[in-house]
Amino acid sequence: MINLYELEQFVLFAETGSLSEVAERIHISAPTLSRSMQNVEATFGVPLFNRTKNRLTLNTTGLKAVEYSKTLLSTASDTLMKVREYDKKLQTIVVKSCAPAPLWKLLPTLNMLYPSMTIATSICDINELDAAISENSYDILILPYMTKALSEDSQFFLMDEHLSICVRKDHELAGKPSVCMKALNGYNFLLRSELGFWDKLCRQNMPASKFLVQNDEFEFNELVSNSSLPSFITDVAIDRYPIPQNRIAIPISDADANVSFYIAVKNTSKYKGLLSKLKQ
After folding, report:
1. Range of 23's domain?
2. Do 9 and 33 share a structural domain?
C-alpha cells in the first residue's frame, strides 16, 4: 500500500536531490527519511535509486516514478478536497432568494430548526434562480411566483410584500395617496444594493431615472435621513428600518410592486418541519 506522506517525501527528494535538505525542511531525522525512501522503493517493487557510498540519486525508473507520483499526489489531493466539499454540502443548507425580505422571515426559523447546519444565503436575479433550478444547485429557493419548472407540491406561499417610495414631507409627491411607476419615471432615487428582482423592476419601469446605489447600510440610512432624493421602502422593511421623521411612505400602485413570494424546496421530506412551521 502506497504511503502518500512517504510519496511526498520521495517527490521532494527528487526536487532537491538531498536527503539532508528534505529532512531539515520537513523536520524529520535523516535515518527516518532514508527508511521512507526504502519503503517507497519496496512499494513500487523495482529499483528506483543509484546508490554509492555517500550519495543517493534517482535512476531512470526512479525519475519516471516521480512523474507518476506527482500525478497520484495531485489526484489524492483533489479527491480529499472533493470529499470534504461533499461533506460540507451535507452540512449546508443553500438558500437562494430573489429579494432580501423573505430571508428575514425564513432564516430565524431555519436556524432554530437546524442549529447544527450552516445556512448559505444569496440574493439572486431571476435568471440566476432559473439556472439554480436547471443545475439543481439549491436546497431552498424563494421566488416572486410559482414556477412551472418545479412541481406544485414542492412550492409554498411564504409572504406578501408591497413596495412604496419614501420621500421628504416637502417633496412634490408627498400629498399623493399612491403613485404609479410611470409617474415616477425621470425622478432620481437612492437605492440599496442586493435587492434582487426589486432592482430590475425599478430600472425596467423607470428607464429615465438614475439610481444612486449604496452598498453600505449605514451610509444609505444617513443619505435617506439627510438627502432630498426619494428612496424605496416596503411594508415589511418598515419594521426593520423605520422611516425617518422627515419622510413619509407612498404606496406604488402598480401590480408588479405588490408581490407574493413562494418558497420552493428540493426535498420536501427533509424540510417538513420548516414547511409546517411556516404554515402556522
Report:
1. 4-85
2. yes
> Are 33 and 21 spatial neighbours (Cβ–Cβ below 8 Å)?
no
pLDDT tens sequence for the chain (280 residues): 889 999 999 999 999 999 899 999 999 998 999 999 999 999 999 999 998 888 899 999 999 999 999 999 999 999 999 888 888 777 899 999 999 999 999 999 999 999 999 999 999 999 999 999 999 999 999 999 999 999 888 899 999 999 999 999 999 999 999 999 999 999 999 999 989 889 999 999 999 999 999 999 999 999 999 999 999 999 999 988 899 999 999 999 999 999 999 999 998 888 888 888 887 7
Rounded CA separation 38/103 (Å): 59
In angstroms, rounded to a whole number, what is the distance separating the alpha carbons of residues 50 and 27? 25
Query: How far, in Å, CA of 51 to CA of 58, rounded?
Result: 9
CA angle, 99 as apex, 96 and 103 as ends, to 5°? 65
Nearest to 253 by CA among 172, 157, 182, 173: 182
Number of domains present in the structure of the chain: 3
Enumerate the β-bridge partners of residue 147: none
* Residue 255 φ/ψ region, left for φ over 0, alpha for ψ in the -120 to 50 degree band, beta for the rest: alpha
- Do residues 240 and 102 make contact, with C-beta atoms less than 8 angstroms apart? no
Instruction: Give Dmax over CA atoms of the chain in angstroms.
Output: 99
- 132 and 269 both lie in a single domain: yes
Q: Are residues 114 and 47 in the same domain?
A: no
- CA proximity to 230, closest of 259, 210, 255: 210
Which residue in this structure is represented by grid cell 472533493?
82
* Residue 259 near residue 156, CB atoms below 8 Å: no
